[in-house]
C-alpha cells in the first residue's frame, strides 16, 4: 500500500462552536503531522494516523485563544498534542466514504465517525530555487465530524438567562488534508524540507 505524508502547510482542522446561543465561533488547528496508507484500488483498506499541535490553535482573537489553551478547555500545558488514528469503513459513492477515527484530546480517546470525500490526485513539480527536482503526486481529502466536547473532558460551561449556555457542547469539525506520496518526497529530496 502506498504511503502518503500529510503536507502540514495545507492540512488543517477547522472547528466551530455555538456562542451565546446565537452565532458561531470558528477556529483552526494548522500544525498537523501524519501519514496515510492509501491505494485507490483497495481504498477500504486505507488507514491514517498522526498528531495535532494543540498549542497553536487559532480563532483570530488572542484572548479567546489563550482561554481555549487553558485548563478550562484543551489544557495544552498538560496535553499539548491531539492524537488521531483511523480508517475507512464504507464506500457510499464514487468519491465518498464513511470512516472512523480514534481521537485523543486531553488524554481521553473516543471513536468518532467521519464523512470523507476524496478530492483527487494531481502531479506537481518540486522546485528548489530555479531547478525542478522532479514530480510529486499529491492527493486530497475533506472530512466532517461532530463531537460532544464533554466526552473528552472539555466540559467548562456557564449558563445564560433563559436556560441558554455560553458555549455549545456539540462541536463541528471540518478536516482538509493534502498528502504527498512518500516515494516522490524521497526521489525529489523534498523529504528533507518536510522533516525540517
Walk me through the structure.
There is one protein chain. Helices cover 10% and strands 56% of the residues. The chain has helices at residues 62-69, 182-188, 191-195, and strands at 3-6, 12-19, 23-29, 32-37, 47-53, 81-93, 96-105, 108-128, 131-148, 159-160, 164-165, 170-181. The two termini are 25 Å apart. It is globular, with a radius of gyration of 18 Å. A hairpin with a 3-residue loop joins strand 10 (159-160) and strand 11. The protein is mainly beta. The chain has three helices and twelve strands.
List keywords for this structure.
196 residues, mainly beta, two-stranded antiparallel sheet, 3 helices, 10% helix, globular
Q: In angstroms, what separates the terminal alpha carbons? A: 25 Å
**E-strand count:** 12
What's the pLDDT, averaged over the residues?
91
Oligomer: single chain
Radius of gyration: 18 Å
Supply the helix-strand structural class.
mainly beta
Helix content: 10-25%
Could you list the spans in which at least 5 consecutive residues all have pLDDT below 50? Answer: none
Question: How would you spell out the order of helices and strands?
Answer: EEEEEHEEEEEEEHH
Give a topology summary.
Layout: E1 3-6, E2 12-19, E3 23-29, E4 32-37, E5 47-53, H1 62-69, E6 81-93, E7 96-105, E8 108-128, E9 131-148, E10 159-160, E11 164-165, E12 170-181, H2 182-188, H3 191-195
Antiparallel strand pairs: 1-4, 1-12, 2-3, 2-12, 4-5, 5-6, 6-7, 7-8, 8-9, 9-12, 10-11
Amino acid at each position: 500500500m502506498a504511503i502518503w505524508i500529510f503536507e502540514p502547510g495545507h492540512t488543517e482542522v477547522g472547528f466551530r462552536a455555538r456562542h451565546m446561543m446565537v452565532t458561531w465561533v470558528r477556529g483552526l488547528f494548522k500544525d498537523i503531522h501524519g501519514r496515510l496508507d492509501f491505494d485507490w484500488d483497495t481504498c477500504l483498506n486505507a488507514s491514517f494516523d498522526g498528531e495535532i499541535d494543540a498549542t497553536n490553535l487559532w480563532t483570530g482573537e488572542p484572548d479567546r485563544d489563550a482561554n481555549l489553551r487553558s485548563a478550562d478547555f484543551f489544557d495544552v500545558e498538560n496535553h499539548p498534542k491531539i492524537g488521531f488514528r483511523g480508517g475507512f469503513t464504507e464506500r457510499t459513492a464514487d468519491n465518498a466514504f464513511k470512516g472512523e477515527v480514534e481521537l485523543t484530546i486531553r488524554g481521553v480517546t473516543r471513536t468518532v465517525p467521519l464523512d470523507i470525500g476524496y478530492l483527487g490526485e494531481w502531479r506537481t513539480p518540486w522546485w528548489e530555487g530555479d531547478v525542478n527536482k522532479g514530480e510529486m503526486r499529491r492527493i486530497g481529502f475533506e472530512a466532517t465530524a461532530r463531537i460532544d466536547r464533554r466526552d473528552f473532558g472539555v466540559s467548562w460551561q456557564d449558563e445564560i438567562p433563559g436556560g441558554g449556555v455560553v458555549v455549545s457542547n456539540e462541536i463541528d469539525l471540518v478536516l482538509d488534508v493534502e498528502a504527498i506520496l512518500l516515494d516522490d518526497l524521497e526521489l525529489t529530496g523534498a523529504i528533507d524540507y518536510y522533516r525540517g
